[in-house]
Amino acid sequence: MARPREFEYDTALGGAMDIFWRQGYRATNLPDLLNAMGLTRGSFYKAFEDKEAIYLKALDHYDVQIVSRTVQMLETCDGESAIACLAELFKTDASDNRGCFICNTMVEMGIENQKAASKANAMAARLRDAIQGVLRRFSENGEISELTEKADLVLHLYFGKQAMGKSGGQTRDWEARLRSLL
Amino acid sequence: MARPREFEYDTALGGAMDIFWRQGYRATNLPDLLNAMGLTRGSFYKAFEDKEAIYLKALDHYDVQIVSRTVQMLETCDGESAIACLAELFKTDASDNRGCFICNTMVEMGIENQKAASKANAMAARLRDAIQGVLRRFSENGEISELTEKADLVLHLYFGKQAMGKSGGQTRDWEARLRSLL
DNA sequence: AAGATTAGGAACCAAATGGTACAAAACAAT
DNA sequence: ATTGTTTTGTACCATTTGGTTCCTAATCTT
Known about the structure:
The structure is a homodimer. By secondary structure, chain A is mainly α. Chain A has helices spanning 9-23, 30-37, 41-47, 51-76, 82-89, 101-109, 114-138, 144-165, 174-181.
């Protein structure tokens, strides 16, 4: 019952996620953020609370948009082995070294921002569960605790790869090395 | 032939390394930095160039002080297996979640700061070589390429662990999981 | 058409940022 | 003791920071 907003909430939020993902929280100033979201200060502070609040919303958006898609990929993967499915995780575009927003958040925010940390931890747990699901689907012997261990190992490896990738590390044949690992 | 400086260069540099390691580059402002180094603006800007320059110097200091110590530990480790030696890598103080300065730098600076990135990459390579050295010492069959692969895997795992540890992740029994890995 | 209500945008603001200027202080050489 | 040279610390500065104000524009309801 008034003037309708001219921008789409989710599109703007997606822009915020993108720039935070790429640059991190502190390296992204308001002009950067507003530009990425495609709106001006007035609209921004009207629709969103402040910089920290939208960072947290961007994390949620990442959860819904990116993590969920990855989880679904792992759940529905029809590869011929667990390794083939998990290798998909490691097939990120080499040229676009944004890394992983979860990992970036963990490193930049640490435990200083508890809200961000717990969101990151929760998303990491989702990924681990999905990885474990893949391992379970393809394994004959159902040693659950061992699968959890292995899944955690793969997750740590994934974060390590994302972290190292940000500084322009080489792309590797992860399928081969996952095979030698599992 | 003039007034001597009242602070020790390396001590101050050590303080800088410490605060950057703990907080990152952007999250550390001048007051933080000066406080950690134990000197005032005047002395700082006389002895060091500026914030970015000392960050790079802090990376070098990390290389000399921390990485070298780790490399030496790996080279002289008299554990009864490669796993026992490598497990030392993962035994960082859980309460002190600074992570790894190399990993932190990779994630925060990315390829934006080329100097920082290449220093980080170089240090990572040193670690990988040392890890490979451990694997070689304890392996019977001398498949070099395979050892390089394995070393790289352990290094990625190490960075992953450091990254995830920053957000307050749990400590794990890395010796056990390294055993299942290698 | 009128009024209510919300979005948009520009001007503005206080605080914090990294960095500089400069005078006082402390030493070495003479 | 005087001079020359370097360090130290404070006061200062321009810029950038995230955030607010407030006026205008646009739409819905009636």
